[in-house]
Structures are given as C-alpha cells and as structure tokens.
Amino acid sequence: MAIATVNPATGETLQTFEPLSDEAVEERIARAAAAFDSYRLTTPQQRAVWLRAAADVLDADAKSVAELMTTEMGKTLASAQAEVGKCAKALRYYAEHGEQMLQPQPADAQAVGAVEAYVVHQPLGVVLAVMPWNFPLWQVMRFAAPALMAGNVGLLKHASNVPQTALYLEELFRKAGFPDDVFQTLLIGSGAVERVLRDDRVVAATLTGSNAAGQAVATVAGDALKKTVLELGGSDPFIVMPSADLDRAAEVAVTARCQNNGQSCIAAKRFFVHADVAEEFTRLFAEKMAALTVGDPMDEGTKVGPLATESGREDVERYMADAVEKGATVVTGGKRVDRPGWFYEPTLVTEVTPEMGIWSEEVFGPVAALHTVADLDEAIRLANEHVYGLGSNLWSEDQGERLRFIRDIQSGMAFVNGMTTSYPELPFGGVKQSGYGRELTEVGMYEFCNAKTVWIGPPSSQQGEGDTAAAASE
Predict the structure, then answer these.
(1) Where in the sequence of the chain do the CATH 3.40.605.10 domains occur?
(2) pLDDT tens digits for 354-411?
(3) Catalytic status, residue 231
(4) Catalytic, out of 83, 265, 401, 447
(5) Per-residue pLDDT tens for 124-139?
(6) CATH class of the domain defined by 236-416
(7) 231, 345, 401, 439: the active-site residue
C-alpha cells in the first residue's frame, strides 16, 4: 500500500509520501537511542509537565486534528472530535497518576532477610509501535502516554493510509516540550518493520492490527528475544437475555456495531439473543440500524461514514455474498451505497450458520450477525468457540446470569449492560488469538518497564555465617 492520504468519502488521492530510506531510518533509530540515554534520567514530575502540555496542545488543535482524521480514514467528524478529547484525557490521566505508579513498591524485607526490599519500575528503552488506521490518534496514545511517562522512547510505524495523522503525533510531542527524538514517526512500509525490530537498539514492540501482522511481529521479536504487546482481532459477542431492557439493548447494539463505521476490533459483531425475546429484539435492532444516516462524514447529521479503504468494502461484500448464498437472511441493508466513496449500508443478518465466513471471521464494517439461542449456556458456548477473545457484552438483570457470564466467557474484558470500550482507568486487551499483554492503567505502563528487585542487606558486621550459607544454597 502506498503511503498516501486518500479520502474514503470520495476516493480522491490528496497527498502521497515517499517512504524513508534505509539510511534515514538508521539515523532516526540512532537518535532515539541517544535520546533515551538522557530522557530516562528525567523525573516523573517533569514528564508529567510535558504530558499536560501535550493535552493542552491537543485541545488547541482539536478541530483541525479531527478534520484530518475524518479526511484520512472516514470516521464521522463527531467521532473524531470525541477521539481527540479521549486522547487528551489519557495524557492528563498519566500526568496525574504516573508518578504514583512509578513509586518504589515495598516488599517484606524481614521475610527475605533484608534491611530494605522493594521493586522499582524502570523504562526499557526504545519501543517500536506498529499501529492501525481505525483509531489513528487513540491507538497510538494508548501506548505513548504510559510509555513516555515511564521514561521510554517511542518509534511509530503508523498505517500507510493515515500519514498526516502520524506526522502530527510527532509534532504534538515536540510542541509539548518533550526532548528531541523522544517520539518519532517513521514513514515506512510494512516490509521495513522487521529491520527496525531486529535492531539491537530497539528493545520491544507493541502492535495493534491484524492477526497476520501480529504473527509476523511476534515471530521476529521472539527470534530476537524482545518483549511484545499485541492487540489483534476481535469478534465480540453481544448476548441479550429475557430480563434485559430490550429497547436500550437494541439502541446500544447499534452503536456497538456501527461505531467508527463498523471498523473497530471491540465492536460487537456476533449477537446471541434468547429465543423468548429474539423476535422483538430483532425488530428493534433492525429499525434502529435502518434509521442511521449514511453520508459525508464531515456533516453533523451523519452517523455512518465510508469504510476506510476500497478493499475493505470489497471484503464486506464478499462476506455478505457468501452468507446470502448459504442461506442467511438480510433483515436490513446488505449492499453498497450508490455514491462516490466506499460506503456500505448498516446491515443486520439473521439465520447465520457456522458454514458462513461471517460466523467465524472478523467483518470490518457495519454488519451485524444475529443468532437465536435457547439459553445463556448456549450463548456462552457459541461465543467461546471463536478464536478471538477481546471484549464481550451481556444484557441481563439476573445476578446469577451476570456472574456466570463473568466467570465463563473467554475474553479479556466483560461488560454487563453496556458496550465494550476503553478507559485509561481500566486494563485493555484480550486472550486467545486476540493477542496478549495489556494497555492502559498501571498495567499498561508496566508492560514496557523492568520490574527490578532491590534487596539491601545489613552491614557486613551484622551478617552471620548462617546468612552466607543460606544465600549460597539458593
């Protein structure tokens, strides 16, 4: 894929970029490594000042940055504005709480025969971030805010269709006052990632993206014995039981499926509805899906914009054709919108079976697949049969059902009477083929820290022979 800004609402190529040469990449890695040598010695208090400044810059740039994201990948302007606000919130969250997160954590010194014992979390070094286009600011900020607060240095390889957003992120941290080269954007293709990751000066990597991309990065990192955090695909279940508020559940289901024009790893994609309420829920769901306004993402009234790429829409059409051919029923939607750009109708499909690709694969578009179940046990069993385990949703007022869902669903996140989303205050990540590791809160910060054990013994004059013998036996 060329490194270019292509407006998905029109199909027009607005700007193209030359990828960095090997020599330029080498120079940037060298600069990042040199920056880490001094940046790691800055205090958490100083880093917090820079993070707050970055949030202020984002606030000032909110309108232009939101318009840039909408132009590059097609999310509605309202969604883009909310994304900018969420990023500013994350920056301020780590500015406020990061210093406390990085305080030494005391251990039981007496139990280990020490005068003092504790754990310190120290930065690892230069971290490569390989990020997708669907939340072009937020995906990066989930990594950047905690990593920079911890004292790490970042190299960003962003998706090739959001180059201007990628360049803005480098500018953002520079304008906020961070030292030179602490955060750099690499305009490179996917084929250049392995060379960067294998460089000895790059100590770890984080990737959000497809399973194929995750496998490629994990393979290289494993061969080089480097730490990785992977957030990969998702096909989140959305389970509706008879005790649920059906109207509210249907309303949230539409948002959960069509957020970001249906292009979200944590979007609800598979809907398991109890037979007792399936007919009513399907009616409500279909009505609300059909009422969504599809159009120019810059327009205030638009609820669903275009898919980000032409190939993405072709993938959705392929899944739909396969499902219909194998017996699925299209309740609403089901085809592209007749206008320039890569638009697709919000779609609800029922009578979905395991033979269809839409059952077992992630559909990255506003297409919901609904299946009727006899009880919660069946819903959980079907949900867990999938290779992914990112988020999950249950709608129920029954406490027993809630507890069973939380206990038995195989996912990194479980949301009851709400849709899966991300917060700086909560860990974010999945299990199974949805990846490993966590982002956000202190857990995400510690992913790229060395949890260093510190043991301080008594003066030599106070140590007996027994202490020496005990230590030698370990």
Answers:
(1) 4-232+434-454
(2) 999 999 999 999 999 999 999 999 999 999 999 999 999 999 999 999 999 999 999 9
(3) yes
(4) 265
(5) 999 999 999 999 999 9
(6) alpha beta
(7) 231
